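Dear H.,

Thanks for agreeing to be a second pair of eyes. The structure we're designing against is below in token form, covering all 65 positions.
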């Protein structure tokens, strides 16, 4: 696909927003009462990075980016 640069930027921003939502949910699910918050933050950061890399890899493989 030959998409304009503006459309590609919007697609990457949408991927980042989806990754943020997944990271928030992962952080809430990993946090247990009485445990430090830092562990949940690290877990959600890993979920964000993994989801963003997966989204971008799939879009690149499909030829969108």
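And this is the sequence the design step returned. I haven't edited it by hand at all.
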């Amino acid at each position: 696909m030959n998409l304009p640069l503006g459309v590609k930027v919007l697609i990457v921003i949408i991927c980042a927003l989806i990754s943020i939502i997944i990271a928030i949910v992962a952080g809430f699910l990993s946090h247990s009462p009485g445990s430090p918050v830092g562990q949940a933050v690290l877990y959600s950061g890993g979920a964000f990075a993994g989801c963003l890399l997966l989204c971008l890899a799939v879009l690149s493989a499909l030829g969108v980016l």
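Two observations from my side: The chain has a mean pLDDT of 94. DSSP finds two helices and no strands in the chain.

Warmly,
E.
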